[in-house]
Every structure is written in structure tokens, then in C-alpha cells.
Amino acid sequence: MTCMATKALILDFGGVIALIKGLYYVPVFPDDEMWRKAEKGEVSEGEFWQKLEKYHGKSTEELIEMLLEERKLNQPVVDFLKSIKGKLKMVTINNGLFKVMERMVKEWGLSEVFDVILNSSQEKLSKPDSKIFLLACERLGVKPEECVYVAKKESYLEVAQSLNMKGFVYSNPADFKEQILNLTGLMV
Fold first, then answer.
1. SS3 for 108?
2. Is 92:108 a contact under the CB 8 Å cutoff?
3. Distance between alpha carbon 53 and the CA centroid of its chain, in Å?
């Protein structure tokens, strides 16, 4: 059996690219079920934002600002990804609301880093469904066995590995860089 060369990186957005600051001690919205449905596109974002507006007494824009305040860019990881841009195709997958992710992508200049950006609410698929990983491969024009997946959760990684992807669970920037170099054979 020949080992296939790595052609692409698939990275979780939340927990790898966007980190939580841990400012809030209460949920932003107590209806977890509706939040999950909105993330999967089973409830329209418009309907979700209306309920959130009513719950908080704030506009959608104010709520997005509140959610953005809670997140920070994982700058060392993004800097490393920029340094290897062009050597591998790159996609990030977000289980989340499109309006929030769209703002982060724009403000953090992530469309310059990633070839493809997938959002669960738009695709109506979310991790750990294997179809979202296969969609990422399709959009990049690669086979699963040509990918390294960087996961936020072990359960996501297990699904990717069942598709013959290599991968690991993100822990910190130094380990991230070392794992990517080891798994891809890149030299930097």
C-alpha cells in the first residue's frame, strides 16, 4: 500500500482558528436545541436572530458584537498557515451561525488564508457528520486520504479518521505546527 501525499488541511474553525475568551458565565441563549438547529440550518438564521433579539432586548448587530467580543483569533496558528499558503490547499469548517462567522472571516482577513470556508448553517451539515468532511474534500478537489484534519474534539477526529484522513486534536500553537510538519512532510 502506497502512502498518498498530503495535499490539503481541513481545520475546525471554533477551537482552532477562533478561540473563546471565556467572558460569559451564562449561555448566550438558553435554548440549546434551537441553537443546534440554527447551526445546522434546520431553523433559519433570521428566525433564530429574532428570538435572540427578543431574549436579550438587543439588535442582531449588537448581539453579533457581543459574540465577537467573546472570540479571538488564534494568531500563531494563522501566521503559520500563512507561511505554508500555496504548499497545501486549506479549508476551515465552522459549526455555527453564518452572520457571526462572516464577520470574523472579514475582520480577520481569513479569506486570504483559506481556499474554502464552510459554514454548517449554510451547508445544512455539521460536524461530526462525515458528509461535511467529504464536502470539504470535494470543494478542494482532493481525496480524504490526501488530507490532514485538525479537530477541536476527539469525536470529530474519529469521523475524519474513519474516512482515512490523518489528523489530531488541537492543543496549542507549538504542537499544531509540529504535528502539521510531521503529518505533511513539509519543510519550513
1. coil
2. no
3. 25
Coil, strand or helix at 95 = coil
Grid coordinates representing 170? Answer: 488541537
Domains of the chain, first to last: 8-20+72-184 (3.40.50.1000), 32-69 (no CATH)
pLDDT value of residue 24:
59
Predicted local distance difference test score (pLDDT) of residue 89: 98
DSSP secondary structure string for all residues of 64-131? HHHHHHTEEE-HHHHHHHHHTBTTBEEEEEE-S-HHHHHHHHHHTTGGGT-SEEEEHHHHT--TT-HH
Question: Among candidates 171, 177, 133, 131, which has minimal Cα distance to 154?
Answer: 171
Per-residue pLDDT reduced to its tens digit, 13-40: 999 999 988 765 556 777 788 888 998 9
Cis peptide preceding 30, ω within 30 of 0: no
Which cell numbers hold the place of 36? 443546534
- Report the alpha-carbon distance of residue 118 to residue 166 in Å, rounded: 20
Q: Length of the chain in residues, anyone?
A: 188
pTM: 0.92
pLDDT at 114 over 90: yes
